[in-house]
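Crash report, auto-generated. Payload:
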Amino acid sequence: MDCKPIKINGFKPSDGFVAELQRLIKREVIPYQYAVLCDEAEGAEKSHVVQNFKNAAKALRGEDIGDGFYGQVFQDSDAAKWLEAAAYSLALFPDKELERRADRLIAVIAEAQDEDGYLNTYFTVKDREKRWTNLLEGHELYCAGHFMEAAAAYYEATGKDRLLNVMKRNAEHIYERFVTQKREGYPGHPEVELALLKMYDVLGDPRFLTLAARFIDTRGTDDFYKREAELRGWTVWGNDANDGYYQQSHAPVREQRDAVGHAVRAVYLYTGMAGLAAETGDKELFGVCRRLWDSIVEKRMYITGGIGSTNIGEAFTADYDLPNDTAYAETCASCGLMFFARAMLRTELDGRYADVMERAFYNTVLAGMALDGKRFFYVNPLEVIPGISGVIATHWHDKPQRPGWFACACCPPNVARTVSSLGSYAYGASGELCCCHLYAAGETDFGNGVKIRCTTDFPYGFTVKYEILSGSGELAVRVPSWSESFGAALNGSAVKCDIRKGYAYFGISSGDVLEIELDGTPRLVYCSPKVAENTGCAAVQRGALIYCFEGADNGEILPLLLDANAVPEVGNYIDELGAVSLKVRGFRTVSDGKLYTFKKPETLPETLTAVPYYTWGNRGENQMRVWLPIGGTI
Amino acid sequence: MDCKPIKINGFKPSDGFVAELQRLIKREVIPYQYAVLCDEAEGAEKSHVVQNFKNAAKALRGEDIGDGFYGQVFQDSDAAKWLEAAAYSLALFPDKELERRADRLIAVIAEAQDEDGYLNTYFTVKDREKRWTNLLEGHELYCAGHFMEAAAAYYEATGKDRLLNVMKRNAEHIYERFVTQKREGYPGHPEVELALLKMYDVLGDPRFLTLAARFIDTRGTDDFYKREAELRGWTVWGNDANDGYYQQSHAPVREQRDAVGHAVRAVYLYTGMAGLAAETGDKELFGVCRRLWDSIVEKRMYITGGIGSTNIGEAFTADYDLPNDTAYAETCASCGLMFFARAMLRTELDGRYADVMERAFYNTVLAGMALDGKRFFYVNPLEVIPGISGVIATHWHDKPQRPGWFACACCPPNVARTVSSLGSYAYGASGELCCCHLYAAGETDFGNGVKIRCTTDFPYGFTVKYEILSGSGELAVRVPSWSESFGAALNGSAVKCDIRKGYAYFGISSGDVLEIELDGTPRLVYCSPKVAENTGCAAVQRGALIYCFEGADNGEILPLLLDANAVPEVGNYIDELGAVSLKVRGFRTVSDGKLYTFKKPETLPETLTAVPYYTWGNRGENQMRVWLPIGGTI
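Recovered output after restart:
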């Protein structure tokens, strides 16, 4: 099968949690990020992105390059990710002013393209001779990939093809080099592979499929980076050309067994691999993707869907090494895990992929953004202690509060584009089969004649209503692994479900109303005792939401224990968070104040309040924990 | 008061735990380390120490310097620490052959001294012009300090003064520069301060007291390191001259409040400060030392007496940050904590200092050395998981097995000198008052006419017998904080004890026999809930020994929980470890194998075996934990 995500304009949000998020992105994030790109946002770090493009255009015309290039080697990608998010947002909420802004930016970008199709301001402004001499660090293919994604999105959302044509020329330039001329190499930061598959999807040009396959299949087959490093004699950051693990070039991709290295690079690569397998029906390659998927979700993923256990190389570490306080769990990596899940669902409709996609989205990806859409976490720890977190060297990256725009501003636009395109994660179709992977209220056009309207208060409500607006076929609705029960009623009558691999299948026709009842009972979750950090602990979950305990509700968190026999209950709606809390019985440890003591501490019964993890850190600096020790009889 | 440690030849070990250790050091460590210094030890890293001295002598004579200097800037200190350990060992166990070796080494060292008294092979061989231009990193004063300690020890042990005269000339050279010529500066790595106080003790020359005070009192009063860095234009490691915290120059010492920076440097500095306060009766300075002591032992010390929570800068971090798995807890730092405790006991006879001295010795310092004396831990974690510990970047320094001699070989000789001089930590005197800080079997001459014989099987036996061999006066015997009871019988009759600040005082005369009965009941220990790592956990202690749980006895350790109501009991003698185990009721968590699950894991009752922490890692690679979660009703 090839169950493709719906087209970007196939989903129109109605009232509901996802729609609210998408409006927040449109109202706060997209305008703010645009101001950042133009260096017009107050208090933000200098971006210079737009100016870099203008300066690159000057360089191409042989004019003085003004104030030159500023920023990271991948600075261009900020503009691309903004354009992609803007495109998705325009598909949801048409907006002439935003579209004009995007058109203007595209015009600036188009001017910066070299006559041979090359497009990258870092190399165009700084040193054209160095183009393509440092694939390990240079991020040329990475930036190109982001612009290809943006171009495809903007074309699908608006029908305008100026950027698409720019990126087609760019992709042809890359094809010419790496396929026609057979030049060696593959990107240090994977991204172009998945983007070329989007270009192939939109343009149908088989060269782009060939090029994606070329990058994937040559990766790690030789010591290319080592030879490249010897030849070039310059470096961006001094990346070790001999350490293949960091950028997943330690082995040919088909021989890779564990998810290793820089977590974002890893899931971007795996997304490309899974996409290629879906396009070509390559079962061997899909098997590799499954193995890497299992490596992540069975051994290397936080309960919040975060991945990357260490800041050192922003990387995966070892099986079951999942420290809560020094976690990296980059927001972008969880976006990437969603990409990977979506790509896997094309070939194999199995709830396990959508379960993880949902886990990553409702917990880490959303935690990456403040509730007001104005500040962002790059790193998403599961335990925060003010005075330690964000302060001492080992915890420097784990900030107790969301900072504003980062010098390395990859996460905010990644959240913006993921949220704005959520429809394409929630819904997909394979022929007559219409798939509902996530519960997202709104109207969906599956592109196969079937249109539905979904109404739900998910993730706080557990009833999901699907009205079939037109067409007929089969509807596959995911049965989430967190739901102990799954009730379905078709046109008011309970129906016995045909459930296979985490999806319930229903024959549907226009006018049908399908109502699903999920189990929203809050529950304790336990972790494998192979994870040292969480032995003797439990967490609290309700539906898709992992909860956490914060100082704002409970005072000091470290002395708290969960009651082993506690049954968590639904608590109050917390206005400030727009979220429903949970209540759970626990204890507060009262010790004699000594660092070490023989005196058994008292444990005083207390009702503890938990709030959704994605809402943490929105009420000032305080202690936070996802996992609490289980106690009571200490 | 000034309760000084006994002279090094004042203690003669008899049978017992300490004597066995001292014999092990003599039999294994001292010969091996000597072979290392001479580059004659099979499988050891190149040392070149002896050759460095020979080459320095050649350089001074204007001859070809052969193969030059090899090693760290502080390489010389390895020879000094070996000589000091050898001196202490000779005081315990006379040995003509060892003494000849030491004499020969001293002759080599003496030849490397410059005519002005300067002694340092790094600068003498590499660049004499750079002498004294990099106090921040150069370690000249550090190496000098270690040779001063060695010289004093060798003189006291053997009566031979050749090295003492060399170091007297060297100390005079330093005095001339920093006092007479009023040149600025103080050592980047404190050590010379405490060493100058030893020189003052042995030689009575007030210049050395003045010089120690000079280094202590000018420290951190200005931006000396910054100015020095600007002037010199070269660096050893690129240490940041603006970060005063690393080497405790962030503030004048009298204004320092928290123990910060490199843990070894910190406690070496504080030892010098406490020694100076004892010599001069400086109450203000002693108050500062108490404050820094409290900062360590109340907020920044592991239960094992380890200090330094991070490998980044080998440093203290923040209050209550005491990670078990990524601990640094360098063996040398715990030696230094013993030095600091001993120095504090001179001014204030309080059991709290000796309690920590004992904790550091019986746990971290001894864990630093394999039971066969052949391998050493630099870093002493409290949790080890093979596959993670010593493997991934964040845990690289926490090795699951003791390696051999290190490239930076500071710890093995530090263990050797500390163990070999244990008598001076165990016993001290102030006038007629004879103090027993630690329980060490052997004969002690307090230097005030009182001689005693101590008989005990401590740390596994809890009866301590003191026979007064000659003299009379007052005996102060420490009442350890871990002992719930303290029984005393004088000449067979129970006596009521006069206990003040952790010491019991007894009038004694020649022929008296005092028997002390301590409480050796194994007990659970709890940690302050301010320490995130240990919430919901307990450890097991018996007397001075902290116990741990190892795979060799229990299989997989991570699934183990302690029973909250467990009463640990004395277990078997484990021949392989020469140690008595403990038994404690607990549970083994049996989960469904998933990374995250709603299924409450089973907890199967199990009797767990704990072994003394200092014996861990002697039976192959396995999981180890000091702190176990408390459970049972999961």
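Post-recovery validation: The mean pLDDT of chain B is 96.
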